[in-house]
Amino acid sequence: MTPAIDLVRRHLVAHIIHEYQHDPSSSAYGREAIEKLAVCQHRVFKTLVVDLGKRRLAVAIIPALSKLSLKQTAKHFASKKVIMANASDVQRSTGYVLGGVSPLGQKRLLPTLLDQSAAQFDTIYVSAGRRGLEIELSSNDLVLLSQGKLADIAETHS
């Protein structure tokens, strides 16, 4: 059980937990989830924590094989510049380790953006708070539980 799973259960949100054997030699966590769960790559999302400057962190959730548009993310957070947060800040603020960062059940609720591509699917997959553990839920429920917003923040992948 993880804080993410506790949160969806506490709010009675429809969800499905998917577990797979994480390969410790893999650092491409999103790609690994896509392959091991055999799901459409566009439905698996990764959770990134960004640094907005002045010790402010935020969450960006994008398709697992996409790249985050730092420029668009900065614009949506009304920040001059956005960089990826360092691992120790991510772990301290979310309570999760890299590769297992869930957008749900974080220690501190951070401002959150979910790439708008998520809205085209009935359900999407995000980390459930541990490597090898995904939670499938609707993008609407994810936005509500994370108090986030939909935004165009992923760079299109060709």
A few lines on this structure:
This protein is α+β, with helices and mostly antiparallel strands. Helices cover 25% and strands 29% of the residues.
Provide the descriptors you would attach to this structure in a database record.
five-stranded mixed sheet; single chain; 158 residues; YbaK protein; three-stranded antiparallel sheet; globular; 10 strands
Question: Can you characterise this structure?
Answer:
The chain is an alpha+beta fold. It is built from five helices and ten strands. The chain has a five-stranded mixed β-sheet with strand order 5-2-3-6-9, sandwiched between helices. A three-stranded antiparallel β-sheet has the order 1-8-7. A two-stranded antiparallel ribbon has the order 4-10.
pLDDT under 50 segments (min length 5)? Answer: none
The gyration radius over C-alpha positions equals 14 Å
Number of strands: 10
Overall 3D shape: globular
Q: What about the largest sheet?
A: 5 strands, mixed
C-alpha termini separation: 37 Å
Q: Which CATH class?
A: Alpha Beta
- Cross-sheet strand order for the largest sheet: 5-2-3-6-9
Total separate domains:
1
The level of helicity is: 25-40%
- Please give the count of helices: 5
Spell out the blueprint of helices and strands.
Elements: H1 3-10, E1 16-19, H2 29-37, E2 45-53, E3 56-63, E4 67-68, H3 70-76, E5 83-84, H4 87-94, E6 112-115, E7 124-130, E8 133-137, H5 139-146, E9 149-151, E10 154-155
Parallel strand pairs: 3-6, 6-9
Antiparallel strand pairs: 1-8, 2-3, 2-5, 4-10, 7-8
